[in-house]
Description:
Protein name: ABC transporter substrate-binding protein
Largest sheet: 8 strands, mixed
Number of domains: 2
CATH class of the largest domain: Alpha Beta
CATH topology of the largest domain: D-Maltodextrin-Binding Protein, domain 2
Number of strands: 14
Number of helices: 17
Signal peptide: 1-21
Distance between the termini: 31 Å
CATH architecture of the largest domain: 3-Layer(aba) Sandwich
Strand content: 15-25%
Radius of gyration: 22 Å
Keywords: Signal
Amino acid sequence: MQKWMRSIGLTCFLVAGSLLAACSSGDSGAVNENGDEIIEITLSAWGSSPAEQRIFAETIATFEEKHPHISVNVDIVADQYMDVLRTRLIGGNAADVFFLDAFEAPALMDTGVLEPLDHYITEDFDINDFEEPLLNAFKRNDTIYGLPKDTSTLALFYNEDRFEEAGLEGPPETWKELEEYAEILTEVTGQYGFGVVADLARLKFIAESKGGSVAENNQASFSDPKVVEALQPVIDMKQSGVVGVPSDVGADWGGEMFGQGRTAMMFEGNWTISFLEETFPNLNWKTAEIPTIDGEKGSMAYTVAYVMNKDSEKKEAAWELISWLTGPEGMELWTRGGFAFPTRASVSEELGLFDDEIRGPFAEAASYATVWADDTNLPIINNNFNNEFLSAFLGQRPLDEALEEAQRVANREIED
């Protein structure tokens, strides 16, 4: 899952890149054709695929053409991005602008190293055009610390040939229908009716669908009866044999499991689209929005923002870069390659994503999805949830006992 998820919305690791001058370096002294001094700023990013790297380079080049008084040094951190970033922030030599994943954002927003962006944002920037859950991922106490550059969401992939074989028309629209379809598909096709990736990054929106929360006040809270109630159907489907995980069929991740025809339905991200088209070109499949739970839509969103270093000496130029890259023009240029989805509704509309038969469900989900981050201790909470949820998923202990143990250990680690 991580291998393919990080290759888009979260924008995966690239092969290499040299470390460039940080924000503390002086201006070049060079002038443009208008005689204006060129301001050099540094943008730190993690790596991506060659195709993504090319489009990103084109996007930055277009910005420089339109802003000839600014030169952007793109600093690719090839490995251990957050470790490198934290070291540079402590040392006072981090870039003027840098990528920040929503998963890491809560902790970093609390440290005071990020420049608040509210007073830079003008009315014509149209902050309300951003999908609300994605923008909120980078807000703390109503202060905006980052603007989401792109996103990836989850939707339902379903195998049309398997559905036809089972006499099913169209995707399930409710969770009850999903359970019924999974049973029929398993019985008729001899393969799993539904595939699951059993970790919190995929299940958080389900866990919180009954009104519970996996974390409250920087503490794990997933032994909440409402969380247990919400997740129990997943456990029950696994125990009844209609749900499988990728490892059950020797697959590395959900897209591979689905592509091999080992499950008829799967919740997966938009990164799976290109994978299936390239690796399983003969597979007959479609996508749909994830079935509703108690009448409510749900999905997960994974998003990354541009943020500004509070210690940057070139904040006005840094804001010019951030505002253009996250404005309609820059965002459309970056996201039209299809690796990740826009965070502005207007850009999704302009690119025709809402009307796209395959990509539409992912674009729609951006307005209501649960963002994968909202707590400074989420890494600890995530690890402990995954360890104990798996034991319940495999039938080794009841779900309520597993989550109670996971919560106890997570909160002990947080306290320590």
